[in-house]
Every structure is written in C-alpha cells, then in structure tokens.
C-alpha cells in the first residue's frame, strides 16, 4: 500500500530538480501525477518513463491563467478528478536591491508568486469537488530570514508563506489542507547551475558547492532534492492529517543560528 493510493496530484515545475523527485516519489507511493512545466521535452520524457497509468505531462506556464485551466482539464480527462497540488515551479534571480530592474522583479513575481496564487485559486474548487485534498506550496528558507541579493526572490517566497496561511484558513472547512515547504540549499540546477552546462566538470562543480555548504550548514552538506520530496509526501499524505497553514523548514539546520567556531 502506498501513502498516496488513489490520489491525483498536479505537480508544477516537474520536469527536473525537486519537482521531478516529487513526481517520482508520489507515483511510487500510488498517486497518479500530472506534471506541469515549460520544459516540454524533459517533462514528456519523465511522464513516459513513469507510464500512462501513472503520469501525464502538460505544458503549464504557471503565470498564465489559461494554462492552468488547460492543465486541470487534462488532469480530469486523464484521471477523473484532482485532489492534490504541489506548487513547486520557481525561478531565482540574484541582484542587489538598487540594481534590480523592475522587469526582472516582476518576472520573478509572475512565476513564483502569481504562479502559486493561480495554482491554488484554480485547483482548490477541484479539491473541494473531490471531497477534500492537499496543497503544498514551495517557499524557501529566505521566506523566513534574509539573504543579500535576493530581493525579488525573497519577496515572492514570503508572499507564498502568507498566502499559505490565508488559504489554509479559508479552505479548512472544505477538507483542504495547505502547507508550505521552506528548503535551504538543495542540490539542483537552481543552486548549482553547472548541472546544466555540458562543458562543466560535474565533480568539480559539486566539490565547490560541497565546500561552501560544509561551512554554512550545521549538518555539513547541501540538501538532496529527494529530501524535499519526502517532506512534500508527508504534507500531501494522511501522515500530516492535523497540520495546515504552516511553513516547514528543511535546511540541515542552517536557520538554527550562527556559529562563531
Ligand atoms: N534549489 C534550492 O536550493 C531551493 C531552495 C529553496 C527553494 N527552492 C524552490 O524549490 C522549487 C524547485 O526548484 P529546484 O531547486 O528544483 O530548481 P530547478 O530550477 O531545477 O527547477 C525549477 C523547475 O521549475 C520550472 N519552471 C520555471 N519557470 C516555470 C514556469 N513559468 N512554469 C512552469 N514551470 C516553470 C523549471 O523549468 C524547472 O523544471 C522552486 O520553487 C525553488 O524556488 C529551491
């Protein structure tokens, strides 16, 4: 028996990174998954690998209202109903506050913040119609503490935690639980862009990232995407049946405090 037997879950940004791990784990735990992304070739390939009984890919730019309508229709067409959502899609831009162009700021808001808003707004009525369900939003460590050069990103992730609390209150009586994950540094292309560079030496890039996080994180290493996927599973399954409206930090102890030694 899987922890998500019989469930149908839409996962955004599922073509790679944490979303891919969530898709694999949720499918292994019995869910049927609808993978949304803008990386069509990668998303299609993953859905094919997971199999038609388990997975579908749909082109879903999370900042576009009409894409959400199409994604929900595709999910219902394939699997009958939807009772779970993982808002995982996100982008990151580094820039100092005074050098951030408005266009860049709004680009990040459109994907991270508007994307999570549209996802919850579009999918919540489907979860209600299915008799209840779960929403897991992907915020960040920087929703809860500061990090220089991340004004746009930090703003959107704090907004996600805020929206999570409000949605949890409004949707509780419909049997819908809404929680947020706040990952620290996780080893994906977002934190380690060398993963996408065919000319980069993966061992060298990993060693540089390892060195950095050995010093910063009490557990002495960067997190793995499957460690975030397991939190998403917990928050999507009955194991978390009395939990809603909360941000959950998964960061190897990074946020616990500073160390002077
Ligand atoms: N990697 C980290 O250290 C870290 C830390 C905290 C939070 N996060 C958050 O975790 C989530 C997953 O990131 P990741 O680490 O797997 O990075 P990633 O860059 O590997 O994956 C992000 C995914 O989102 C997709 N995406 C981007 N724009 C999209 C759009 N408009 N519509 C649909 N999909 C879109 C990308 O194509 C990609 O598949 C993001 O929300 C990110 O902000 C990551």
Automatic annotation (TrEMBL):
The protein's Enzyme Commission number: 1.1.1.47
SUPFAM superfamilies xref list: NAD(P)-binding Rossmann-fold domains
A UniProt-annotated Pfam family: adh_short_C2
GO molecular function per UniProt: glucose 1-dehydrogenase [NAD(P)+] activity
Keywords, sorted A to Z: Oxidoreductase
Keyword Oxidoreductase listed: yes
Database matches in InterPro entries: NAD(P)-bd_dom_sf, Sc_DH/Rdtase_CS, SDR_fam
Highest taxon, organism lineage: Bacteria
Assigned protein family: Belongs to the short-chain dehydrogenases/reductases (SDR) family.
Name of the protein described by the UniProt record: Glucose 1-dehydrogenase
């Amino acid at each position: 028996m899987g922890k998500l037997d019989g469930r149908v879950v839409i996962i955004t940004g599922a073509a790679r990174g944490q979303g891919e791990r969530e898709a694999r784990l949720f499918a292994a735990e019995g869910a049927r998954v609808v993978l949304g992304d803008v990386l069509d070739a990668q998303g299609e390939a993953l859905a094919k690998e997971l199999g038609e009984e388990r997975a579908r890919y749909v082109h879903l730019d999370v900042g576009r209202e009409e894409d959400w309508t199409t994604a929900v229709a595709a999910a219902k067409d394939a699997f009958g109903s939807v009772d779970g959502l993982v808002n995982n899609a996100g982008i990151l831009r580094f820039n100092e506050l005074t050098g951030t162009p408005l266009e860049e700021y709004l680009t990040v808001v459109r994907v991270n913040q508007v994307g999570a808003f549209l996802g919850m707004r579009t999918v919540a009525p489907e979860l209600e119609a299915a008799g209840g369900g779960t929403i897991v939003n992907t915020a960040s460590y920087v929703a809860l503490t500061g990090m220089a050069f991340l004004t746009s990103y930090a703003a959107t992730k704090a907004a996600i935690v805020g929206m999570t609390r409000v949605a949890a209150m409004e949707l509780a009586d419909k049997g819908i639980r809404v929680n947020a994950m706040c990952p620290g540094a996780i080893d994906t292309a977002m934190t380690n862009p060398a993963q996408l560079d065919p000319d980069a030496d993966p061992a060298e890039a990993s060693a540089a990232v390892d060195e950095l996080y050995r010093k910063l994180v009490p557990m002495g290493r960067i997190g793995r995407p499957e460690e975030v996927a397991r939190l998403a599973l917990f928050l999507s399954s009955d194991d978390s049946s009395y939990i809603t409206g909360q941000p959950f930090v998964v960061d190897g102890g990074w946020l616990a405090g500073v160390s002077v030694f």
